[in-house]
Amino acid sequence: ISTMPSDNHSVMQLYLDGPRNNFFTFFYTHDNNADRIRKISLRSHDYLGNKKTSDIIYAQKIATENIFNKKNIPFRSFEINQRDEKSLGELFSFFILETILLGKLLGLNPYDQPAVELIKKETKKILI
């Protein structure tokens, strides 16, 4: 899990030029209450003046997706319009159904996780 844009320099190089063995999911939550950047000290960054921080982060998300497309790196992207319980519940429901369907398509039982069950049993022993 990476938190953009702060993780760009630590992991993006790996994602873009590393092994092609991952599928990526981008999440973006719209933030209409973000503050505007008033004053820019560096002339080279004048283009950031009077932009909302959310606009800059969104531009970076779009730029990242553009580069992933150019490099043929598989990803999907979710944009969340409202950060609330309903949206979170919809996402959880989607991912639960996705896990069930993918498990069935791959011939796996998505309800049988013996390794996870070991941790549950061990946790119960510790707590009793």
Task: Write a structural description.
The protein has 128 residues and is mainly alpha-helical. 49% of the residues lie in helices and 9% in strands. The protein has a two-stranded parallel sheet. The longest helix is centred in the last third of the chain and has 21 residues, at 85-105. The radius of gyration is 20 Å and the shape is elongated.
Layout of SSEs?
Elements (H helix, E strand, L loop, with lengths): L7 H10 L6 E6 L23 H18 L4 E6 L4 H21 L8 H14 L1
Parallel strand pairs: 1-2
Quick summary:
With 128 residues, this protein is mainly alpha-helical. It has helices spanning 8-17, 53-70, 85-105, 114-127, and strands at residues 24-29, 75-80.
Average of pLDDT: 87
Number of strands: 2
Roughly how many Å is the radius of gyration? 20 Å
Strand order of the largest sheet: 1-2
Uncertain regions spanning at least 5 consecutive residues: none
Portion in beta strands: 5-15%
Please report the number of helical segments: 4
Report, as a whole number of angstroms, the end-to-end distance.
33 Å
**How would you describe the shape?**
elongated
What is the share of helical residues? Answer: 40-55%
Q: SSE string, helix = H, strand = E? A: HEHEHH
Largest sheet: 2 strands, parallel
Structural class assignment: mainly alpha
Annotation keywords:
single chain; 128 residues; mainly alpha; two-stranded parallel ribbon; 9% strand
